[in-house]
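Q: My collaborator sent me two sequences in one message, no labels, and asked for predicted structures for both. Can we handle them in order? The first one she listed is below.
A: Yes, handling them in the order given. First sequence, followed by its structure tokens:
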Amino acid sequence: MMNDDSGQKTLYLRILRSSPQEAVYRARRALTARAVKLAAAGGMTVPRIPPVDMARVRQLETPRFDIRPESGLIAQILNGKRFLLQEDGAESAADPRMLWEPARLQHLTYLLACASERPDDAPALRQAAVSMALQWLDGNPFPRGPHYASPMECGLRIPVFFYCLKVMDDPRPEAARALAGAIYRHAWWVEKRLSLYSSLGNHTICECVGLLFAGAVFRNTGAGRRWLSRGVEILKREVRHQVLDDGGPAEQSLAYHRFVLDLYRLAADFMERNGIEGSAALKPGLLSGERFLAAFEDRAGNLPDIGDSDDGHAVAPGVRPKKEKAVEKDPGEYRHFPDAGYTVIHTDAGLRFTFDHGPLGMPPLFNHGHADALSVTLSVCGRDILVDPGTYRYNGAPKWRSYFKSTRAHSTVTIDGADQAVQETGFIWSNPYECEPAACGTIEDGFLMESVHTGYRRLNPPVAHRRSILFSNRSTFTIRDTFEGEGAHDFELNFHFHPDVKLVRQGRGWSAENAGSRIFMGLTGEDEFHEVRGLESPLLGWFSPAYGARAASSVLTCRKKGHPCAVNFLTVISLTLPTIEHVHSGKAGELWKTGSRF
């Protein structure tokens, strides 16, 4: 979702001027929305709802789910609990994401999924879910109110209404008409307001999954057949666009990649179970995407926070589309993804290290990417040590939104206080950077990685930042940051830690411990880190554990000024060594003295 501010409007005008087709599409979409709302305000019924074929609905098979039930949650939902995001006072009121989350009605999906595994309780749970769906529709008449503002939200609700319609054991005609009417209206509205052109992304997948379900319900109508065809066509096209050849996400967000892949699994299973052609075309991308995410999982099955996340679920919290079989993880220690731009290292000791050498995000708006080129994360035995700081929130807190996306909030180097790209709005970037394809390879005692990004070539005079990383002895990372360019510049190296990490000074270095998992790190030569935590002016040292939540966290930082060719940083991170001085006698010291590139 996006803020409707002047900066965004200005950038949209630039985009639309360059694409007449998009300009026409957006104008038509806006005029249609206005006409429909005016008609509804005048008491007109838009659109006309055809009769639903309940016999067809009963024949449709629902997708299969994997459920991780939470003790007591069913009772809580029956007593009024809804799935909410964390709130932090006044800022929450300005963020529609807080309002939209419970209106996705995923608590109903949770009830119905649990009903399939609890036959004794199933009738009562089904009746409760249907009743809650009807109450929501009564309180939110189409197309008025905030819940019809986003076609993505409408697309996510369509499967929920289908599940409710499907489980009605003895459907009352008026209840069935209300649910079927909701499906039809939502799909009709989505079709006219699809997220296309520069808005392509995870929103588009939500909307097309909605069209798929609605099209199956109303397949006996022209509109239903059109929705089905359009939804499947775009899903097939976008799986090749949004899932890169190596399985990575075009949006450069691991959380949204999980979200999109779950939507595709939901769609593919529904299509297969109901004889809808096209699921085979989805599976190669779906499988490669699952393999990509599996490479990032630590021992606890957790993914690092890379890129935006709004904590959304494709189906519901605790409920995911069923996997046909578990994805086999690559047993290798070093996993390189050249298209998405990541290298991941795993060891038997439980270490997971990620190196980001990928692009900013999905053009032309790069909505969910962060300016995190050449940043790293590190966890040990499922405990996060070095982290991406997360997202915090999208709307209502512009300075925080800007910080969590910024280069300074990531474990890399910021030059002249500038981001690696230009933040036009809370979602839109301009002047996107690119990363040189990473040079990676094994050596006798470890693994080498190196890349350079273009983000600071827009400075006057321009600067290039190169990061080289040596992993040696299965326990030590030597990270060298070097620069090329002219003039005098300000260089700031930051490493961000999880809030649970305790930093302790040890000589010229530092130990960092999280629940028994520990690393040692420091700078060689005369350089030294100093610790900052929870600074508010300027912002530095913050972590977002969930959407709408933030906490102070520690950062080790080092700042230098000078000519690019005269400035460098050499950071040593070790799982076993409490001091850093002796690295000069090893491979890292040799590379440092010779200045050779990996």
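Q: And the one she listed second?
A: Here it is, processed independently of the first:
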Amino acid sequence: MATFVAQLILLLSFGRLIGEGMSRLGQPAIFGQLIAGVVLGPSVFGLLLPDLHALVFPETPALKSMIDAVSQIGILLLLLLTGMETNLALVSRRRRAVISTSFFGILVPFVCGVALAYALPASVLPSPAARLVTALFLGTALSVSSVKIVGMVLLEVGALRRDLGQLILATAILDDTLAWIITAVISGIALHDTVDLPTIALSVGLTALFLALSLGPGRRVVARAILWTNDHLTIEVPVITAILVIMLAMALTTDLIGVHTALGAFVAGILIGQSPILTEHIEGELRGFIMAFFSPIFFAVAGLGMDLRALFDPTLLLFTVAVILVASVGKFVGALAGGRLGGMDWRESLTLAAGLNARGSTEVIVASIGLSMGALTQPLYTMIVAMAVITTMAMPPSLRWMLGRTPLSAGEVQRLERAEAEQNESVPNMERALVYLDDSANGAVMAALAGLFAARQDVLATVLETGEGQGAERLTAAAHTARRGDHAPAIEQLVQVRRDNADGAVERETARGYGIAFVGIEQPIALDQPRFEAPVQHLVETVEGPVAMLVNGEALGRAAMAPRNILVPTTGTADSQLAIEIALALAGASGGGVTVFHVFDPSEDTLLLRGRARRVGMSLLVDAHRLGKRSGVPVKGLTATSARPEVAIRRATVRNRYDLVVLGSSLRGGDVKFLGPRTLSLVRSLGLPILLIAR
């Protein structure tokens, strides 16, 4: 145990420190972790201090199995993380170019790699009789791109959001997905030591069935499992435990059907990454757990397996150069041809081919699997890892050079500007909504509004309903209407509660984490003081996001169920911005429009301040118009000058007909949160339905 702990200390320390150095040089940190393994392995440590190396890294079966177990778990966790970062929707956006580039980008180097394996001397093969399995592993290792490394390099060169960057990433995603399917099938062949066509057909059929069930009903099963864990377990980090159990269960499933566990872990990552409640906090904790311990251990152990002394043999060095050339030229030519056949011009195809020539982690994992299964020898393993390092180090400068000569189109410029602007918005980041309703008119209208919002933003809704109302049905109907008959987001949970137990039900639900809460009850605001009724008060105190409550829902009845003319007063604060975002979501779902209203303060209307105040006020309307244009919703600007904004807002509602007023308000602090006097006065005096956004 002491030796094992000493090994972990050395692998972690050297891996993280050298990884830090590589990161500062603009290279992926995993290369530093690989180099740490090489330094601690027979190439450096074993050569300089053989006795001490034998003491720390002895050839003891028990110790080797212990460190190998940690490394194997590391493979599964890294594939889980890779799957979580995989966005299959990218693949479908430019399906023809992605499929064509991925197919030819894999086919050409794969065929060349298999041919190269048949030219290798028998001395570097694990078994000359099983040359086919070695050839298949070598072809796979030389043909696929590493989506993790490609993504990191695109981020580093500032091209991740470009059209070409997204296309490169989508192709790498398909490459990685195909890689683990191919690796799983080849592993099945290696396990049987022969090319048994019925066995291969069975493995391929079971793999296809596994993928169909996982990517079909499996998505919902995994999402429900994570959701149930998050909502019902109170122990520390229960969701991370659920994620690990799902990953291990799917890895075990693929092992039982005769293919490698790597495929199960990767597919589990895809499904978990699509879970609607996988918050950045949970994903960050899991990533930290993996990157701090398992990643440096795995890549350092992979480096330990490299013996650079084998390359001192001129023949093996020549074959190493051949491996690098086959991998680089084969991938470049295949991807270039695929890009052209996929409808891309020469410049785009060249850039795409340059961007896919990064290998890194995928090749290291494939090589590690081949080595552990006896399909690769130590020299072959060293050649593949050396190829992965060299091709990835050459990729960033070549991609940067090509991107600099590929100008952005006008549409791409607009899309990038839109994506940058959306980073500052709150509504796109909301994943779950809590909807609290009763049998009142407010409840009926709010159910429809929550359904419109859920459909537009694709969020899950939990409905808490007192009595035997029809709020859930109204919410679902509104969501279906907004989707124009397409599949609407399902209500994840419907809870019927008694009126005398509403406080307890709300308290239980808010502990589960929601991005926004919608309240549709008869009287959300107390009549005799500037605070809320008990269940609503608990919501505004505990919900992390805003609470949207409806007042005067009965004033406009059915028209407000699909508001087409919404008024949003704005002062330029974050609360006003949030109100505009929510109003645009509602208008976008109902096919309506939004009027943004700004009231100038006459005290600032002096000769000195007139220009500045007016420019600031008008800029708020311009920003709202831009936001509406990005959302596909028409936005009108309206202004007035008054020392009392609430009076000006009332006048505006008299002069124009509005279905709904969306009002953003920052709550006052103290022992309890409450509304400010101006907001309270406006809410109580305005005769229209008001959606009050409080936080």
